[in-house]
Amino acid sequence: PQPTYLKDYVPYPFEVERLDLEFDLEPHHTRVLSRARYKRKEHVDVEEPLRLNGAGQTLLSLSLDGTPLTALDYRCQDSGLVLPNVPNAFELTVVTEIDPEANKALEGLYLSSGNFCTQCEAQGFRRITYFPDRPDVMTRYTTTIRADKQRFPVLLSNGNLVEQCDLDDGRHLTRWEDPFFKPSYLFALVAGDLVCQEDAFTTMSGREVLLQIYVEARNADKCDHAMLSLKKAMAWDEQRFGFEYDLDRFMIVAVDDFNMGAMENKGLNVFNSKYVLARPETATDDDFLNIESVVGHEYFHNWTGNRITCRDWFQLSLKEGLTVFRDQEFSADMNSAAVKRIEEVRILQSHQFAEDSGPMAHPVRPESYVEINNFYTMTVYSKGAELIRMMQTLLGRDGFMAGIRLYVQRHDGQAVTTDDFVAAMEDASGVDLDQFRRWYSQAGTPVIHVEQHYDGERQQLTLDVTQSCPATPGQPDKQPFHIPLRLALLGPDGTPQPLHLVNESGQQGAEELVLSVTAARQKFCFEQVGEGCVVSLLRDFSAPVKLTMNTSRDELAFLMAHDNDAFNRWNASQRLAGGLLLDLVDRVRKGQKLILEPMFVEAFRTSLLDEQTDPSLLALALALPLESFLAEQMEEIDPQAIFTAREFVRHEVAVQLKDDFLTVYRRCADSGPYEVTPQAVGQRRLKNLCLGYLAALAPQDNMIWQMILEQFSTGRNMTDVSAALGLLADHDNRDSRHALDTFYATWKEDPLVVEKWLGIQARSRREDCLEQVERLMGTPAFNLHNPNKVRSLIGVFCQGNSVRFHAADGSGYDFLRRQVALIDPFNPQIAARLVAPLLRWPRYDDTRSALMKQALEQLQAKTTLSADLYEMVSKGLD
Ligand code: B3K
Ligand code: ZN
Fold it and tell me: Domains in the chain, please, with CATH?
């Protein structure tokens, strides 16, 4: 497989004036007729052939302006069709046949639970018909669908329904017209036996929009939350961004077999059922919150992605980074902003930073790819969103909104680049973002080091700031980034002090400042700084960087208790706990005795008993840093030592604070009806955090064990029940087995709940966890063809159970290699995602890294690798 390069971009030589599609649906033999009007663009050579992408279909006929073409008139290649002699303007009709039933890659047109659905992003449309399948070719679509009425009573496509009628032989037809120009990746078709929940939304200009959520009949009672989320998202987008919905109807369809979370097809979003279906008995608080955010995300794409789309796939972050930023702001407004921000950063620090320091590290705007599907990454999505957030920080909210307005005014209806976006931000605000653009082109996580010097006599505080960025594949040297560094100075009682920056005009005396760090080394000097002030830096995580600073443990404890920036309070707790844990990891490796510092336990107790703070924030602060976060900070990762150190702390804290945990657990006990409000969610989080620590004492402590069993059997919502089950599943005894069996017996007909059951067992601390995982793979609860099942069993084990996956004998690596090899032939996207943990081999000790590398080499030696897996494996071995 050959890479594609950003520098090779050339516009498509033809315009497509319209596209009419006709589908005759049959599970094994679907006929697709496509009629497109092409027009050669001005100044394009008349010799320039027409090139169409296409794959995995049988060409039945081809005609130009009504005249059938013969094999002499075109070349049919693996990657598509080439027509050498075409006029300047013409209509091309292509008839092809495809086999959706056999499509297990879940790309293009396929069947899920017997219903037809599509997934075209990034390059799935070429599996449906021959067409210039690239985002900068935008046209108007009409879609006619014919299918058996009994089996497929619902026939949907993008846009507005313009015709509907019955045909002979029990078939029926619908015709859809999408008035908006769109690229092929936003095309969608759904046909099946579905029920629909309806609602309506009146837009800000008074238009009535029909809202529909389509699901299988058995799920009819699980759509309320998604519908509510949709209405909230529509209203929020009008208020915050002034974006109004533009079609007469907006449809969401939930399907069980889906490679990702959801897809923003124009007017017809297709969702992984995981992000639509929820009832308190079947879904957790996090599921409810994720549904709100994903429904929002896909809806928000209507403006950022659909109306204004990407010129080419290197620009993916144009729509994804921006839309993630928008969904983050939406969730922040609907719930607790501080909690949301902490959760985002936690994921960024543990997963995106890891990606950015590994063999797949790439800029937010990559320069090349072998398979674009491998670039739907944390970097493009989450780091991309951080770039948008930094622009908002640098421009201020008003400047940023002016930028958004200019962007839309300039580019509505176009396919553009991230550079066009930055230019709009610049032009609207007058802020120079030239250096800022490096964030798009340079990979790697910048490291900021700050040295603070206090001169008591002069009352001056100097911050000596240096930045650097480690080399990444293909980028040995980096230029300095433009980094917004939000800061405050806190007085001894925690109050922010007025800031007086030497040699600066304006803004003097503010309580918070955003410093623009642009040079490799830069000094900032503050005057009138009293004794005992503490610096609060990188507030609200103002840039996606690693900050190192000479902060003492006492200062961290101070920030943890007093910082008025909630994010930084949490960050201080993580730095404190992280530092302690890393010391313990070191002691474990040296075989030294482990002791927990009393000051840590005391700080922990103070937070635990704090009744003022949002319980979600407390739960976040009291959670031990993630294993992946600790791993990321180690030169050589030792998963066993990380596990041992964390378990030691968990146990030690539980021993010393048992009564406090019990008190808080009881205080947060479930009362009243289930609600997904920040308060109620926070109570459950704090309660289950307490239970999680207490569980370190069980099953030896029978009182605690009974408490867990009690929560499992009497819990009235999935949040509480699954939290308890997760703790039981860490052990192998009669009670645990009974709990797992009961749970399965209750929920075996509900695939989403079965996924939780699988995930809980894949995450178990049991030493024979892998054996259990392999056993479960042989049961009806599992299905290798269903991505959700694969993710919850194989994915969770390999990415969420570090200590068992990294068993020193290499059994985890061998297991993953076998599964990847099995999945790759039918679903390359899933195989390529699954293999990622093996790519981190250089970070482990010699034994582990040799075994991981060997597993990759064995995969590489296979004769047939998909382009997806080939790219991951070869980059991993580079
Ligand atoms: N745009 C889709 C992702 C498509 C992934 C293709 N491999 C979902 C989203 O980000 O909204
Ligand atoms: Zn998206």
Answer: 14-290 (2.60.40.1730), 313-441 (1.10.390.10), 460-543 (2.60.40.1840), 553-697 (1.25.50.10)
